[in-house]
Amino acid sequence: VSVMKTAGEGGPYGMAVLALYSLRSSEMSLDEFLERIVFSSAECVTVEPDEKTAEGFNKFLDSYVKCLDCERKAVECI
After folding, report:
1. Average pLDDT for the chain
2. CA distance 63 to 78
3. Which residues contact 48 (CB under 8 A, 6 or more apart)?
4. What whole-number distance in Å separates Cα of residue 28 and Cα of residue 67?
5. Distance CA 75, CA 58 (A)
């Protein structure tokens, strides 16, 4: 998984980026804007999952999928 250091800012950062893009949208596509203006000098961090973390995620996902029918039924009953 690769993320940029700005990833922690989430929604407010994304909204500010879109607001700035809306002012410059006639100059370039959103892809170009992000690549050339917003993320041109952004630092990126890549993390490789370890085996224990991957196993934990797989267990969680199996449990989550098993509960989906229950979630669907709950929505039907509301």
Report:
1. 88
2. 23
3. none
4. 45
5. 25
* Distance from C-alpha of 77 to C-alpha of 74, rounded to nearest angstrom: 5
Q: Which two tokens stand for residue 59?
A: 């267990």
- The closest of 9, 18, 56 to 37, measured between CA atoms, is 18
- Residue 12 to residues 24, 46, 74: CA-CA distances in angstroms? 19, 23, 33
Length of the chain, in residues: 78
Task: Tell me how many degrees the CA angle 53-62-64 measures, rounded to the nearest 5.
Answer: 100
pLDDT per residue as tens digits for the range 17-70? 899 999 887 888 999 998 888 888 888 888 888 999 999 999 999 999 999 999
Q: Amino acid identity of 67?
A: C
Please name the amino acid found at residue 22: S
Residue type, 32: E
Write out pLDDT tens, residues 2-25: 777 766 667 788 898 899 999 887
